[in-house]
Design a protein that fits this description.
It is built from 16 helices and no strands. The radius of gyration is 20 Å and the shape is globular. With 363 residues, the chain is mostly helical.
């Protein structure tokens, strides 16, 4: 997960006419075969998947990789909830000029563009042919959000892209103006101003009964030897508390694969700047091996495309946003994790779809 530095802003959200994902959709009734991520019938879903396949190939002389084929099948099953398994080789070749006309709502076009933006990255590298084709779809769909610019600039001005990803992440999580100060000072504020009282409050979570939410949160810190918020090396509690609480509730561990999945889950749960602030940054960091900042770290080839789509859907189906201003961590620390998951309507996690095929252990 990443934090936001404002750039001089060659492209501002206002200038690009960015449209955030409709938060009200979370409350909408879901028809059969639809998710909060997108409401689409079979014909629209098939058209989007056909376009995704073309972006995944990038060039007609290439063949579809196994990773992309698996991802397309998973998107058909979990995102669009099609009754029949998606066979990539049978999908129609829907070119950019055709796709927009096959989608009936602006929300479908926005969602389709987000899904298309994932496909150039599935094979673990920046591929100009795939990115260029994605940009043609974005233009045809008339989508001009910041994540489109991030991909447009990724092969030519990577430093700016990484700075913007950090900026967009903070904008997503805190929605506050920023003064451009050192990002590490934001992430690690206790190096200069330790807060022993705050640290003691987090330490005390270890005394709670096994299986409670607070104890499970405390275990993440003890198992990984993390410093608590308030300690000199502790991460800013405004970020660490909801982020690590999301690990607890989603069931995804803190491995590189788990970080991809928990950030993807967050993009569904907290759909503000979901692509530019969460999805693309985490794929750059933990799949392409591109370090965004010293705090975020990086690794290569950690994306499982099937687990990815499932995580995004699971997050979007959850009923409580842990990054919302009014969510209160301390009010639920004594409750069993199972009870909190039930009240927040966190979808279950099949062990096959967990990071490392084993959900986070709750003790």
């Amino acid at each position: 997960m990443f934090i936001y530095i404002p750039s001089a802003g060659r492209y501002s959200s206002d200038a690009l006419g960015a449209v955030n994902y409709r938060l009200a959709a979370r409350e909408a009734q879901r028809a059969d075969g639809e998710t909060v991520l997108i409401q689409a019938g079979v014909a629209e879903a098939t058209a989007i998947l056909g376009a995704m396949r073309l972006v995944a190939i990038g060039d007609e002389r290439r063949t579809l990789s196994d990773a992309c084929a698996r991802g397309l099948a998973a998107a058909g099953r979990y995102v669009f909830r099609l009754n029949e398994d998606t066979r990539p080789e049978t999908l129609p070749a829907v070119i950019p000029a055709e796709l927009s006309g096959k989608l009936s709502t602006q929300e479908q076009r926005e969602a389709a563009c987000r899904f298309l933006a994932v496909m150039p990255l599935v094979d673990g590298r920046l591929d100009e042919a795939k990115i260029d084709l994605f940009l043609r779809y974005a233009e045809a769909l008339e989508i001009h959000e910041d994540y489109v610019t991030q991909l447009a600039e990724a092969c030519s001005d990577l430093d700016w892209v990484l700075e913007d990803m950090t900026r967009q992440n903070i904008k997503s999580l805190w929605d506050e103006p920023w003064d451009g100060s050192d990002i590490m000072e934001v992430l690690l504020p206790y190096r200069r101003n330790a807060d022993p009282g705050l640290a003691a409050r987090y330490h005390a979570l270890g005394a709670l009964p096994s299986g409670t939410f607070g104890r499970a949160f405390w275990n993440i810190y003890r198992q990984n030897d993390y410093a608590f918020p308030g300690q000199e090396q502790g991460v800013n509690g405004r970020f660490a508390t909801p982020h690590d609480s999301t690990h607890v509730l989603s069931g995804y561990d803190t491995s590189p694969e788990g970080e991809i999945l928990v950030s993807t889950f967050t993009a569904g749960m907290h759909p503000k700047q979901p692509m530019e602030g969460h999805i693309l940054p985490v794929l750059f960091s933990w799949h392409l091996g591109i370090e965004i900042n010293a705090f975020a770290k990086s690794a290569r080839n950690q994306l499982d495309a099937e687990k990815f789509w499932i995580a995004w859907v699971r997050g979007s189906d959850m009923k409580t946003d842990l990054f919302a201003r009014d969510w209160d961590f301390w009010s639920v620390i004594e409750e069993p994790v199972t009870a909190v998951r039930k009240r927040y309507e966190v979808p279950g996690l099949d062990p096959r779809h967990a990071a490392g095929r084993s959900p986070l252990t709750i003790t």
